Amino acid sequence: MIEVIVFDADDTLWHNETLFKVAENKLADLLADYHPSDFVIETHLETEGRNIKTYGYGVKGFTLSMIETAIDLTEGKIPPEDIRKIIGFGKEMLDADVVLLEGVCETIEKLSKSYPLMIITKGDLLDQQRKVARSGLGDFFKHIEVVSNKTSKTYEKVLAKHDIVPQHFLMVGNSLKSDVLPVVEIGGQAVYIPNSTTWAHEAVSQEDADRKEYYEIENIGQLVKIIEKKEK
Question: pTM to 2 decimals?
């Protein structure tokens, strides 16, 4: 039996990765006189990956990694006004409108009438709180947890905090690495909704992807039927 339904936020409830892609392309354009676009984006991805353990997830760490990439790729020659432009790219991301994915509002509203709903998302606390508020969905969720990472231990800690038994919760998200596999590992249930713009750092091995110890649907609009089927 499902006693609580938990949702990821970014790229599960609203568009997010597209903002990062746009900023990466702006960085590549800014550094076009130094290196090809693909090389700039690849280098930034590597820099960001190294920095996650220091900065965590979110726009602020992403922006710091863009600045570091720009300094490295120009051998420190990038002018101050271009550094300011990169900071501007980050501010644009933080100020961007929250655009819900298709079917989210209807699905969340319907499920909230039958189940307690919760968000577990990783990222910067202030930024995630802002996005929840701007989304218009905040009142549908009983609890909102912003965590530094999503591992099996993270889920166990959050579930224990709220007195939730792993076998009785369902996690819904777009990342196998963060939203699905750790939940399955602790005995929870999970629904995977692939997103075409899922972050490169969320990739998993084909072996893990083929485990299929979870449900997979094409869009969130199909979630209600999956849950109704499970509960029969």
Answer: 0.88
